[in-house]
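ok so heres the complex, two chains, lmk if somethin looks off
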Amino acid sequence: MKSITLFLLILILSFESFAQEKTRRKWLTYYEQKKSTFESLPNDEDEIIFLGNSITEGCEWNELFDDDRIKNRGISADVAEGIFLRLDEVTESKPLKIFLMIGINDLAFGYSIDEILQFYNKILNKIKEDSPKTKTYIQSVLPINESFGKFSAYDTLSNVIIKLNLKLEKLAQDQSLEFINLHESFLLNNRLNPKYTNDGLHLTGKGYLLWKRLIEQYIAE
Amino acid sequence: MKSITLFLLILILSFESFAQEKTRRKWLTYYEQKKSTFESLPNDEDEIIFLGNSITEGCEWNELFDDDRIKNRGISADVAEGIFLRLDEVTESKPLKIFLMIGINDLAFGYSIDEILQFYNKILNKIKEDSPKTKTYIQSVLPINESFGKFSAYDTLSNVIIKLNLKLEKLAQDQSLEFINLHESFLLNNRLNPKYTNDGLHLTGKGYLLWKRLIEQYIAE
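and the predicted structre for the whole thing:
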């Protein structure tokens, strides 16, 4: 009976590991689709780049702000390292502004806050070198709401998100960049307000309308 | 030993069915995120709507054509029924043109060609009723390339895609609409040309550049 239990355990773990490897490969494939598509698009003057993961990708920002300078450069499941590795496409046009939000997937994939900050530094240094006139806004990572029970890898992240955001605020101060604290406006009882999400991680239309109100002064300035 | 084999079989099937149900729920959640976001965006004059699934969603069409009338209304994993159920948001602005591509997921999910055509008819009738001046272009479903081995549910679809496209061409003729045959331009040896894809189903940047060349006359006319 023991050997059967062991066999079942190995079977279940294999399924799990197979699923994780499949997820990772799927992400890399998608990353390459989006990256190559972004590289195929013409550059424009005075671009305002929304740079991030699925949460950035999920909105038509140019429509939301009725502002055609705005370009969506979100890639679902992206991490700070992924942003760094596709930054040439972003800085090539010498954009006017970059609104950056990244880090939630990094935490879920097991990166430490220090590792994430190292990639932030690489990103910010590269922007400064390649496009010194670009103004970069560091947006806080949004809260999550684990009560939806949809993303088990994210369920324990509420406290570490707060720690990461404090470090990001400090980083922005050190580099004389604007830090935009979106986190607290999206909270209800210390979790992502269910008014703005249907899965505890991503936003619905109401979430993007709130985000718009919180940053429109920075788009306009 | 027989009972163990049976138990393992049930376990594997449970995993499979659990995974399918998880995929379906994830799609519905995502559909609702995107639909509510589209509904939060302002309407514009003379909109040109790109309407479809992930293959439509994957490109920044307004940037590709440098034309701000173009709006992306693609939702990953969407089907003809899904398009029909979110058509109000599309027709509300009385768009100038709609470029429709839908059907590949329907086939993968097991809908018959007749069922898909019924939803196409519902879609076209509703557009005609709600926004009679809108010009709708029916784009053929693109070929797939099963040799990538990434999407098992799509692997047997090459021939049925051709049959669906013939029916869509007929439907367009019957309704005096333009049918745009993209399918053959994306082929190499009867499969989606690997030059344009990295997973056999979705497009990379080069794929979208080809698509652009094939439809730019219809955007301009």
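quick notes: The CA atoms of residues 137 and 218 of chain A lie 8 Å apart. thats all i got rn
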